[in-house]
Input
Amino acid sequence: MSMIKRRTVLAGLAAAAAMPRWVHAAAPADGVDPALVKFIEGLPKTEYHVHLEGTLEAEMKFALAKRNGLNLPFADVAAMKASYQYHDLPSFLAIYYDGMKVLLKEQDFYDLAYAYLGKAASQNVIYTEMFFDPQEHLKRGVAMEAVIMGITRARRDAEAKLGIRSQLILCFVRDLPADTAMAALDAALPFKQHLVGVGLDSDEAGHPPEKFAAHFAKARANGLHVTAHCDVDQVDTLKNIRTALVDLEVDRIDHGGNIVQSPELVQIAKQQGMYFTVCPTFSGTLRRGLTQPVDVVRSMLDAGLKVTISSDDPAYMASEYINEVLLRAVTRSNLTRADLAGIARNGFEAAWLPAADKAALIAKLDAYLASAV
Output
């Protein structure tokens, strides 16, 4: 995107969004029982729905731009953050993808991943499976090896130094041509030992999950798990959830909140033991076709679905990482300590890990819950 076009887009977004979703009037902990705040801070956690490029904080953008000889069209960090104005998924994505241009070298991806893992570890995330969007980097001439190996080195160092274990999920950008997604998968397969799965993200409109059936089949043939975004309030959202559940038989669903509008799909998901990676900061309520907004987390829990909670793209959402997201969910979704413990347990049970490894992580959760009584 050219600088002129970028400024035009951002100006239009600012005018369209009187108040972007990440602007909040109060701090996340305001009004929350201090004992519950302490419980959340100490709670061992997982995170599955986090886009590494969405953790690229403004300060790091400036540092990487300087290192790579790039000029950014912002006077300072404050001006850059003030430009994060969005009102829906397409307007968010315009900002999100533009921000990636500073990521050019293997060390950039190392720094990005290590910064996220450090932040997550500081909030007691002990296991995470992270998304990345290689098509956006390949089209700028960045080699797949630089992307994956930079992140992989960071993962290894973070586990050794910070104690946080992680795995990596390659996401297909669904609104780019399907052949570019297949090319990205083919470029990544020589490094498949560093991947745990593939996913599906970006703008869902006009790009249903079945567009990637062949991609998912090839990924599975190479030993990888499969997940897919089913964003909130999208066109044909229930149809897409059905396709993901029934036809593509995905291993997890990212977002998926509209499922509560279909008792049949809820029952299918429960029968499959499906886990949902819900991000209440960005898509916390259902609105389309409803007279009153419906809280996603509360309604999914009440339906008996297996909910996990994640931060999504925290650098673009007021730098609210998992603890802040959980604190907001406590108030908005009326979460109890038992709800929070159940969500944490869902997270560990949803891990794409051998059974023994999952059991070891769940034992850490159980030990904490026993001590926190």
In short: The CA atoms of residues 172 and 181 lie 6 Å apart.
